[in-house]
Amino acid sequence: MRENIMTAATLTVLVLYIFERASSQGDRPVEVQNPSTELRDAVERYESDRNLLGRSYPIWMSSSWRERTREFLNDWQERLARTNFDSLSEDGRIDFLLFDNHLDYELRQLDIRAKGLEESRHFLPFADEVLLLEEERRNLRFIDGESAAKRLWRIGSQMDSTRKALGDGNGGTKKTVAHRAARYVDEVRDILRHWFEFYNGYDPLFTWWVGQPYHELDSLMREYASFIRDKFVGIKADDKTTIIGDPIGREALMVELAHEMIPYTPDELIAIARKELSWCQAEMRLASNALGYGDDWHAALEHVKRQHVEPGKQTELIRDLAHEAVGFLKEHDLLTIPPLAEETWRMEMLSPRQQLVSPFFLGGEVIQVSYPTNTMTHEQKMMSMRGNNVHFARATVFHELIPGHHLQGFMTERYKPYRSLFWTPFWVEGGALYWEMTFWDLDFPRTPENRVGMLFWRMHRCARVIFSLSFHLGEMSPGDCVDMLVEKVGHERDNATAEVRRSFAGDYSPLYQCAYLIGALQFRALQKELVGTGRMAPKEFNNATYREGAIPIEMLRASLAHLPVAKSYVASWRFAEELFGK
User: Fold this and answer.
1) What's the pTM value of the predicted model, to 2 decimals?
2) Which of 362, 337, 358 is nearest to 348 (CA)?
3) What is the pLDDT of residues 181-236, one digit of tens each?
4) CA-to-CA distance for 449 and 447, rounded, in angstroms?
5) Integer Cα distance of 136 and 149 in angstroms
6) Which of 111, 129, 451, 468 is spaced 20 to 30 Å from 298 by Cα?
């Protein structure tokens, strides 16, 4: 056993050595000696180096960060290009394409972020000097207190001049650009604080000279950010409800779609979502008729929302629903569930503050449960209970736990974990929604109320595609998005507002909300291709999807279907045509 471990370690070092040697010897290709590792070592080395470089150059707004990052990415592109693609195994070729796709995306993102910064530049002429102070400190070029105080004074004077030049906000600047600029001011302020705290108290002369100028400049920055938000965006500093967002436009959306290997335009994806939404609405009318409400599915939805547990019982409900889903999987022999994964999931409650942006459950190894607390108003309590009723919960608990996010995380940590670099929500969220659709096909919803609960979430995922892409195309405002969720899906307004705020707060990629439905449809099309034709058994297919990593599903298809891929591969799988026709 010890000899085997030593052999594996030696081979790992050897492969990495070969890759590095080939990278430094002109155009000589990498000759793969161990197909079981191939590019894995290179991917892991890249990720370690990238993370180290990111810690050393953390100021993304600085030109030095962009230049060094571009140099780093170009270097890795050149290394990868010298790989002997034809000598790679099937897994190795897929890793090559994933890695190449990742590097190309990162380089494109540099240009997109630089463009966004440039659009806000007229608000931030003073920012470069602040960034330079921190860069000098990080490069160990320390400063004396008197000169630092003078530089802070100049920064403050420049900010004051900029504010006067901007006037009262009637210059025609887009709200989204101004909102972005205010966020940048907040970031610059944090950078300045970090610079000051490095010296303050440790260097007596620095503290004597700089203490007062720093606190004055810090206050000026805070007031300046508030000025931008008030005059150019139209929101006060303490406004926690208005949603602005930052639409990225068609060109940037196409970059995102290329990275996800989705060969569709945003407009085509919106059309696909509308088709799926029409199916959901037809099914919702059937369930509504079964409940005695005719075609008035809003009334049927209201009936279902009233079926929530009493205070204190939500945790018991979640536990029982999680066990029910696992039992359903085992009954239908759909999946191999590792006993440790079944044993180790946990539960926590979402705070009232967290529920402002996450009104429903969040999942993974820990399912985070949304339910009202005693500190909420009566209206907030009722909206939370209605939005997390028994039938809505029954359709989402397994999405968060098993076979959804908890099992996904468990498996991706154990199978090809290096592919975490290529993580995509189309696999993660799309895979979890695929299971919702599979459960529906196998009659998991036993009652009309159950069907309404599952259809509500399916409609919600259709709406996410429509409103998120339309927002980024500049065709819908955040208010329009909220209205759509209320009118077309049946959300409580507070929950709809929280959902839209979460979508556009900047914590999620532009395609994240789109990924649920589109990813699920990719899984469905792949299942039809492999299981529907008898090439794989259902359980075999389901097990296999967890073992390739959270990668773009076009690459999952290439792996499971053993498709030939070329070094010049371009995504071309029109998966929706397999489901809906042309």
Assistant:
1) 0.88
2) 362
3) 999 999 999 999 999 999 999 999 999 999 999 999 999 999 999 999 999 988 87
4) 5
5) 15
6) 468
